[in-house]
Please model this.
Amino acid sequence: MLTCDKNIKDLKVLISEEEIQKKVKLLAEDIEKVFPKGEDIYVICVLKGSSMFCIDLIKHFKNPIQLEFIRISSYGHETKSTNNLQAIDLTLPNLNEKNVLIVEDIIDTGLTARFLTDLFKIKHLPKKLVFTSLLNKKCARQIEIEPDFYGFEIDDKFVVGYGLDYKGYYRNLPYIGYFPQ
Ligand code: IMP
Model:
């Protein structure tokens, strides 16, 4: 039987469900303003971490949405970035001259964000490319990169919940939490 070695009883709330939901609505309103009114937006949900954020975000959009999923892994089972990006599934339709929004859960070292923005710019040649992340660990950055939009800046602590996991656990929590050291 699989069991997590970190107990939910030790988890501290960092960002509440209510704060997240308020922020996601505001973010969606701000993001949509940068796309031409009424045009299709191809929303790229980066699995698995951004699943909850992305689904909540698109509920607020008024433009027509095409939802696509890609899967990348950078952490394995560690709580520190391994600098070892694994592209598990990057299958996408033709995005040439399309409006594209990449939705990430968190920007930590920045390596995933750089990989994705370069890939989309070079391979897909979108009309407009916008990158958003719910969380931004600015202090953990290894390369210079900033999302166009983000929800919350956080300290360099490992967080779980609202799509983010520890060894596959805790993605289902409606809030963001951390385990104090
Ligand atoms: P980066 O390439 O180091 O910026 O890492 C990006 C990816 O690492 C994110 O999309 C997450 O999947 C994962 N990640 C980074 N920090 C955390 C964290 O605090 N908790 C859970 N996953 C994280």
Q: What stands out?
A: The two ends are 26 Å apart (CA to CA). Residues 49, 74-75, 81, 104-113, 158-159, 164 surround inosinic acid (CB under 6 Å). The longest strand covers residues 65-73.
